[in-house]
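Usage

Read records sequentially. Each one opens with the input sequence:
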Amino acid sequence: MKLKEKLQNGEVSIGSWITIGNPSIAEIMAKSGFDWLTVDMEHSAITLDLAQQLIQIIELCGVAPLVRVGENDPNLIKRVMDAGAHGIIVPMVNTKEDAMKAVNAVRYPPEGTRGVGLARAQGYSLDFERYRQWANSESIIVVQIEHIEAVENLKSILEVRGIDAFMVGPYDLSGSLGVPGDFDHPKVRKAFKKIQEISEGLNVNAGFHVVPPFYDLVLKKISEGYSFIAFGVDFLFLGETCRSGLKNIKKFLGEMEIRNEGI
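and closes with the structure output:
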């Protein structure tokens, strides 16, 4: 089933985050079974040229390629969509106007304000009309809720037509409350609760980025009602596997040394 259909049906979809600009990373992750993968252009050194290569690889593996743009900028959004992204994740959407700006940047007139270009997405000029219709009906727009101002304006943001889902950015949200990374702080917990209450009332696709690569945290978010979930980050999957494996090996070697000394 296509990601758009899952979102329209309110089904759970699991994706992940790519920050390492290497085609092999994208291919390995795309073949792991994710519903979607996001190429991160906000907190990485990935350029537009490299992002297009990663988009191509992800798409060829049958996975939906999304791009988290660096900012809510119509020109940047237009360029990643022209590169072939199936949708965007937009950071720091704090108002209804911010949400409308993101939607307009993805869709062509009269539904939006996107300028017309003939690049990869449009078949290099051979497939514009089909793509125009697809972009205005099938492209995916996700807004990030990662500031307390966004929480306060959440209802009006999510009522904007064209928003497919929202995603909580826990680190920046806690930072906006003066306690970066402290997700158990009463102010942060209160904000999380408010987000859940408002989203449940609007029956929208609630998303959350579970940054640590531990599946039990994902199951917890699913049980809390989140359906659009980013699981881990490429470098954390790599680093955690290395660290946990070496920890167990070194523990075994230490125990072996102790046994040998006792002989």
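Summary fields computed downstream for this record:
- The longest strand covers residues 13-18.
- Residues 234-261 form the longest helix (28 residues).
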